[in-house]
Write a structure and sequence with these properties.
Chains A, B: Pfam families: LacI, Peripla_BP_3. 2 copies of one chain form a homodimer. Chain A is about 45% helix and about 15% strand. Chain A contains 14 helices and 12 strands.
């Protein structure tokens, strides 16, 4: 653990309470913890004095005895250009909002671990009982690091090709892809291209499978291009340029990373083409990026509120060894149609 | 502290390392902490073996010695109907996104404390060195509770009428009010009403002062209505109804709480009036609610990214007793004009 310059605040000890109550420290300890043989009136008196003095038990000493931190971490391994961004209102923070409430209901505090390289040191130092990792890639460093420490980990979204599969909440990536592609076809798209990230995440793996199956069933050409997540919007724009220059007649682009999708819309418009009249665009996460894009992006409601609660509950179960559920399936993803793929929605 | 059913994970101890290295536990401790008289080769060997075994120092024992938690909390005292909401993407989560990065740079973990009554118990149990409280009301219970524990607290936004004024980041509520009212006047508004919350928060106090000064300087009638934050959107709608039924000729409404503003727009539209042609509407926080309202709401960029970093830095300084800054002024708020107040912006 690195040395930090934080000072310890002065704190009342059990000795102060014992002195004020005129009893031994052992009696104070037994009285406050409802243990041992203590006269009920003495117990009451000690509790009263402890409260008057503002005495709080030494949490760290208690934790050392019980081995519990009563804290869990929420960890994102997406690069900052995707997980963060100018408004900082992304996928992770939407999950964090619900997760902190769900954790609270279990008596657990939620610690946030941001998607930055510097977080690696923090992962070694956090006093936590478990962690929820958001959409880990295969061989995710954060997961490995936490497991090496003996911290219980569950993931939101399946970890692909994990050596030891983590318990996870199924984000139903295949179904998400299917409803987006189905919607594009219903809007008249005949030649849909797929733009995904290069990293081995379930969302890309599942989306690609849904796309290949969809194209196969309709004899649609398979046009897939990949971009680096870390490149964010401009990587999406670059990839779109390559798509349009190398393929004629593309009339729809499915770009599940919202930052990529915004780049796609900008590139299409910069070429004097119209969204959605010339090319329809859809994305996955229905966040601020999708909603504030011009035109707003058709996206998928992943029901992250409910997903977060399921993840916290699953983690709690595994920490306690109560159950051995490996997979929990959340609510089905539902389509949110907007003007980027439908002229009707733009009205 | 309440008992939680969390189990302690098995953990390698210093004795395991000592056994494997064939040295005493004291030697291991000295070697790993670079203390005492240990032969450099032994030190290196112990470190290597500790790493091979995956030994991590017992953080809780270390914390007990140093008295440091290396964690800080982010606390919101706004009711859930305002701070949370269907999408959970509010003011608090935007601050949390930047604050977790800023905390990380100081080597501190950020713990989220949600705006719920149940959080009160958590505030007593959290092992933290300090807390950032978002826009506390006067006599805020969360602040009192934390201070009683000896936890260092700073606030984002001044705490009004505090017995002991907290160190704070100035959110410049007066200036925020001034630019909103100035903008409405420039858009042709002659009779602007103010809709604020009933709670004693700096944002309402400052906004009201700015409004009274503005009205006084222009001989505009002072029309102020208050609503309960906990009522959210429907409370805003109720208040708007009262405004329009009791006052003729209102052509603009300034509603700094975004949930209220959305209710205002719905009430105006339900009456067959148009926003902004008949009544202009503006709000304060430029979040998802403002941006996804129909029409989108003119709002203020409070630069919460930078504000969050300033708050974490100020808290860190106070925890360490390095400086005695009581007030830090952040970047000036800037207007974001949208279709709710400007026909030009709607084009």
């Amino acid at each position: 653990m690195s040395e930090s310059p934080l000072r310890a605040p002065a704190r009342l000890t059990i000795a102060d309470v014992a002195r004020a109550a005129g009893v031994s420290r052992t009696t104070v300890s037994h009285a406050l913890n409802d243990r041992g043989q203590v006269d009920p009136r003495t117990r009451e008196k000690v509790k009263q004095i402890a409260q008057q003095l503002g005495y709080r038990p030494n949490l760290r000493a208690q934790r050392l005895r019980t081995g519990k931190a009563n804290s869990i971490a929420l960890v994102s391994s997406m690069p900052f250009s995707v997980a963060g961004g100018p408004s900082r209102l992304g996928f992770m923070m939407e999950i964090a909002g619900s997760a902190m409430e769900a954790a609270l209901r279990q008596g657990l505090a939620l610690v946030l671990v941001p998607p930055l390289d510097a977080a690696e040191a923090l992962l070694d130092e956090l006093d936590i009982d478990g962690a929820v990792v958001i959409e880990p890639a295969a061989h995710d460093r954060n997961v490995t690091q936490l497991q090496r420490r003996g911290v219980q980990v569950v993931s939101i979204g399946r970890q692909p090709e994990g050596d030891q599969a983590l318990p996870y909440i199924d984000l139903q990536g295949y179904e998400t892809g299917r409803i987006l592609l189905q919607h594009l076809a219903e809007q008249g798209a005949l030649k849909t291209a797929l733009l995904i990230g290069t990293q081995p995440r379930h969302s890309y793996v599942d989306m690609e499978q849904a796309y290949r199956d969809f194209a196969g069933a309709r004899e649609m050409p398979v046009i897939i291009v990949r971009a680096e997540e870390a490149g964010g919007e401009s990587a999406g724009r670059e990839a779109c340029r390559a798509l349009l220059e190398n393929h004629l007649g593309i009339d729809a682009i499915c770009a599940p990373v919202d930052a990529f999708a915004v780049g796609v819309v900008k590139e299409i418009q910069a070429r004097g083409l119209r969204v959605p009249e010339d090319i329809r665009v859809v994305t996955r996460y229905d966040g601020l990026r999708a909603q504030s894009c011009q035109p707003p992006l058709t996206a998928v409601n992943l029901h992250l509120d409910e997903i977060s609660v399921l993840a916290i509950d699953l983690l709690f179960e595994h920490i306690n060894g109560q159950v051995k559920r490996r997979v929990v399936t959340g609510p089905a993803p539902s389509l949110v149609v907007r003007a980027s793929s439908s002229t009707a929605a733009g009205a």
